[in-house]
Amino acid sequence: MDEKLLESYWNLLNLGDDYLRCGRKRRHPSLRDAGFTGLKASPALRSVPARDTDPALLLKEIAQEVSSCTACRLHEGRHHAVPGEGVVHPMVLIIGEGPGAQEDASGRPFVGPAGQYLDKWMKAIGLSRSEHLFIGNVIKCRPPGNRDPLPDEAAACRPFLDRQIDILRPKAILTVGRIAMQLLLDTTDGIGRRHGKRFEYRGIPLVPTYHPSGVLRNPEYRAPVWKDLKALRSLLEELG
Ligand code: SF4
């Protein structure tokens, strides 16, 4: 800490002593009386990063932890972990199941055909990755052969997602696909029973829908997905 700042603190402490000696009728000494011009004066303090409050920094720290995580067997076969990415306080947090082959190769979420399709869905309700969304998965490393994650893998990985949600504080969550919905809603129901309805996770409204890769394979799901997206849009409008 620089000399001037230390001197300011010292003057302030002395004025405090004077105040105690003089009684309550005297004007309370101010910081300015002490010559204290604020913490901005200290270059040393300015250079300390706001580690506890900067959400972008906290998200980056989680991404680094994910990248080096060995908490479950899925780290053994991954090329890249996929922590997720997007804007810091998104309108919608989209949560899928886990990385596929292209995500594993690139380290980025939803970059293949399903991702491009998802972008179109979002565009249809006026949302874009660059302005309104954060996109991630419940599982950060690719399960071999795109199999469903095992319960112990899901449990090991969940704290990363929960920490991300608490930092992101999105207005709403959209889960895509059965696995993400089942894990977050703690249910064995199929997606057909729950899609388009409103639920809540960690105090945030959640709407489940189908996974874009499933809809690419099964065009009959297009109509229900459009209904779900309109339900999400209505929810966002209600939330302002
Ligand atoms: S899937 Fe999650 S818990 Fe498992 S190694 Fe990857 S980051 Fe860690």
UniProtKB/TrEMBL annotation:
Cross-referenced InterPro entries: UDG_Type-4/5, Ura-DNA_glyco_family4, Uracil-DNA_glycosylase-like, Uracil-DNA_glycosylase-like_sf
Origin superkingdom: Bacteria
One MF annotation (Gene Ontology) recorded for this entry: uracil DNA N-glycosylase activity
First-level EC class: hydrolase
Coiled coil location: none
Catalytic activity, EC: 3.2.2.27
Domain Uracil-DNA glycosylase-like: 83-230
SUPFAM superfamilies referenced in this protein's UniProt entry, alphabetically: Uracil-DNA glycosylase-like
Signal peptide residues on this chain, from the entry's feature table: none
Catalysed transformations (reactions): Hydrolyzes single-stranded DNA or mismatched double-stranded DNA and polynucleotides, releasing free uracil
The entry's keywords: 4Fe-4S, DNA damage, DNA repair, Hydrolase, Iron, Iron-sulfur, Metal-binding
An example Gene Ontology biological process: DNA repair
SMART domains in the cross-refs: UDG, UreE_C
UniProt cross-references to PANTHER family, sorted A to Z: TYPE-4 URACIL-DNA GLYCOSYLASE, TYPE-5 URACIL-DNA GLYCOSYLASE
Membership in a protein family: Belongs to the uracil-DNA glycosylase (UDG) superfamily. Type 4 (UDGa) family.
Full protein name: Type-4 uracil-DNA glycosylase
Species of the source: Sediminispirochaeta smaragdinae (strain DSM 11293 / JCM 15392 / SEBR 4228) (Spirochaeta smaragdinae)
